[in-house]
Please model this.
Amino acid sequence: MAAYYNEFNPFVAQWLRNLIGAGLIAPGDVDERSICDVSEDDLRGYTQCHLFAGLGGWSLAFRLAGWEDDRPAWSASAPCQPFSADGLQVGFDDDRDLWPHVARLVEKRRPTVLFGEQVTSAPWLSRTRRDMEEMGYAVGAMPIKARTVGARHGRPRYWFVADAQWDEQPREEPCSREAGRVGRVIEPFPWHEPWEGALSRFRIVGDGLPRSVGATDAARNAIVPQVAAEFIAAYMEAA
Model:
């Protein structure tokens, strides 16, 4: 019942292995290839698949929500750079727009459920919804800020879930779960602290890369697992 983690950044990939070794996220294998080179056969036999795995935030979030390691699920938080307000905002024309590869793998492997998130200032959600619904999935999505779980920074994101077995019409919000509950905090994801404090407490990965560069980039690209856990729990209540 192993999990599959796809992470292109060697620094972060080793960080994932450390977290797996410490038992903080689901046991599994880390694949450092680009998602462009991953085929459907590479994912065969895995219970959970985390594409763009980052710091393993989705795996931790599943555990926080009470979703067992042996319960099937996929996650995919594709790179936000093509759509971020801080980037070039080239959107679908950006080479880093890797959602089409997620859709390719989903179409081939047909996971039961896919969770993901992305920045709020972009048209990516319409495409995601269209692609998933064309494959027979029902899609629910809602904007949530990190402040809803007690963080001291906004970090607004649109969170979505695509369900292959949903027996109702797609809805904008998977449920009306009350926002604002303070999420549980488990190291090494100290998002309850201000940004600088959280960065200072990230673990060091001994692969020779400068901490100030590798850790900061990893944190900047990571999800807030406590928010993801609330979203997953809401889906579990509504399903």
In short: The longest strand covers residues 138-144. Residues 225-238 form the longest helix (14 residues). The radius of gyration is 17 Å. The CA atoms of residues 153 and 195 lie 7 Å apart.
